[in-house]
């Protein structure tokens, strides 16, 4: 009896990097994709158009770009994700891209996650993306109020310098985070 030939999955599927069924549905929509990827150190957001010759990146923003504008806080939290979404949307609108569809890749969609904060930033900057209001984080979390509350708890317990050591090095007081968020947001919108 002959053995059945073994079917091997595509490399990116084996590595857990691409869900091809989901990707095909996004591509067949015919819209540009708002691709949001999170890393340990930041947020990457791109507007990608798929054509016959492959994908073309039309606009791209990384949370590290926020440093140039004056952001002295963490680059991988909710406020920086929101601001990165605003940056990529402004760049997309400059390239005459007014609508997109969200592509979060293999990220498990969790209500209020950083990928949805990035989506909210893009929508607030003028990009049209279909979404449900249920998944978005609250405005308090987007502004970083939860980080300020946590920092206050750490100050009371004496662990502030250890937990927020990067902020201490940069002389960036966490209680000023919501104010800094609003300043950077206004700078991005005025661009």
Would you kindly provide a written description of the structure presented here, covering whatever features stand out?
The protein is α+β, with helices and mostly antiparallel strands and 191 residues long. The protein has a single domain, classed as 2-Layer Sandwich (Nucleotidyltransferase, domain 5), CATH 3.30.420. It contains 10 helices and 4 strands; from the N terminus they run H-H-E-E-E-H-H-E-H-H-H-H-H-H. It has helices spanning 11-14, 20-28, 66-69, 78-94, 114-124, 139-143, 145-157, 160-163, 165-169, 177-190; strands at 33-38, 43-51, 54-62, 101-103. Helix 4 (78-94) packs across helix 5 and helix 4 (78-94) packs parallel to helix 10. The chain is globular.
